[in-house]
Amino acid sequence: LRYAVPGVRPMSTVARRAERGACLETAFGLCGGPLAWYVQLCCGYALASQPCFSGGRRLGAPVAALQWTWAAMVLLMLAAVLTALLSLLVSWRAYRRTRDQTSTDLHELMDAGAGRARFVALWGMLLGGGFALATALTAVSFVTLPRCAG
């Protein structure tokens, strides 16, 4: 059964896919940076601490069998920075797309949702850039500090 609302045309399949794609793009732009940082923080903690502790005591050097964790940690940080920068780029594109969608009529602006989309895109740019910077600073400290002696 189809319910028809007077004056409202039903969405086509193409329009629904485009709307779903825009929603996923907005969600990635807003949450990509923080999620990348969170994954890097949790997985990075395990990769950085596991080789330095054995049987509940701290070691002066990493366990030989777990030397691979350093390279894995660097790759994880690189992936997190790139993901955060990608979310920044996606949000920046959405912000540029919505910057010209301003209207003087408040009701038109509320119906179009341009103000909301632009607001979310702005926060996506701030979060993507901020978390890319935070992850890059973590990477610098990880590379420059001694591994198990801290």
Structure write-up:
There is one protein chain. Helix 1 runs antiparallel to helix 2, helix 1 (13-49) runs parallel beside helix 4 and helix 2 runs antiparallel to helix 4. It is elongated, with a radius of gyration of 23 Å. With 150 residues, the protein is mostly helical. The longest helix has 37 residues, at 13-49. Helix content is 71%, strand content 3%. The protein has a two-stranded antiparallel ribbon with strand order 1-2. The protein has helices spanning 13-49, 68-98, 106-112, 114-144; strands at residues 53-54, 57-58.
How many helix segments?
4
Q: What's the SSE pattern?
A: HEEHHH
The amount of helix comes to: over 70%
* Rg (C-alpha, Å): 23 Å
Main sheet makeup:
2 strands, antiparallel
What amount of the residues lies in strands? under 5%
Structural class: mainly alpha
Cα distance spanning the termini: 67 Å
Total strand segments = 2
Strand order of the largest sheet: 1-2
Q: Name the overall outline.
A: elongated
What are the low-pLDDT stretches, counting only 5+ consecutive residues below 50? none
Mean pLDDT: 81
In short:
It is built from 4 helices and 2 strands, in the order αββααα. With 150 residues, it is mainly alpha-helical.
Task: Provide tags for this entry.
150 residues, mainly alpha, two-stranded antiparallel ribbon, 4 helices, 2 strands, 71% helix, 3% strand, elongated
Write the topology of this structure:
Elements: H1 13-49, E1 53-54, E2 57-58, H2 68-98, H3 106-112, H4 114-144
Antiparallel strand pairs: 1-2
Helix pairs in contact: 1-2, 1-4, 2-4
